[in-house]
Amino acid sequence: MMKPPAAHGSQKRGEPRTLDIRKYPNRRYYDATHRRHTGLAQIHKLILEGYNVRIVDVQTGDEITSQILIQILLEYEPAKLNVFSSELLTRAIRVSDSLLNDFVDRYFREAFEVFCASQKQFDEMLREAHQLTTAFAQPTNWVRGLFPSWTPPGTAPAPQTPSSSPVMAGDETGASSAAREEIAGLRREIATLKARGKKGSSPSRKRKKKQGRS
How far, CA to CA in Å, does 176 sit from each of 169, 180, 206? Predict the structure, then answer.
């Protein structure tokens, strides 16, 4: 399956997507968009970087973009031409131009454009998934929020402060009143036990005093 070359993203913002290139009889090319002379290798590099090109023969005034692109494929991307079998190329040579153009426009071009659109959408999904993965690469903070008592391995435990675990005002009042009642109940039980101990020890002391007098 042929995969379209990914753009390198070196195109500057504001620059036109389609470059106007002129071909002279001496096989030299001139980039009218950037106002500089160029060559076939530079045109190939610009296409890889995401630019589109429109090439015009200065001598005849005809657009020769397709011919130059085929020449670039033959010289710099010959492996990509292997997707076309010899039988397919032979039939392309034999059939009429109108029939071949109709076939390419109706089947090949539409299918290839749909494939490129789906590939672009898939790349965007991968990019968004990568951004989400990067955002959750350090889950320490949100894990601490969910589980304050748990600390991930290799992380120093955070110092606990009275204000680290928020408590509602009603819950705090209820907890303090319950604690006071429990403490008061314990005090009453202790006082009761002390009182019983005093009552139990008083007769024995009286007996000891009587025995001592006798």
Answer: 11, 6, 46
Asked if 59 and 25 touch (Cβ cutoff 8 Å), the reply is: yes
Q: Which residues of the chain have pLDDT under 50?
A: 1-9, 164-167, 169
The total number of residues shown for the chain amounts to 214
The tokens for 142 are 């949100």
Which pTM was predicted?
Answer: 0.47
Q: What is the pLDDT of residue 185?
A: 80
3-state helix, strand, coil in the chain (%, to 5): 60, 10, 30
For residue 110, give every residue at least 6 positions away whose Cβ sits within 8 Å of its Cβ, in sequence order, or none: none
Residue 45's alpha-carbon distances to 22, 28, 51, 57, in angstroms, are 17, 16, 9, 20
Q: Is 21 helix (H, G, I), strand (E, B) or coil?
A: strand
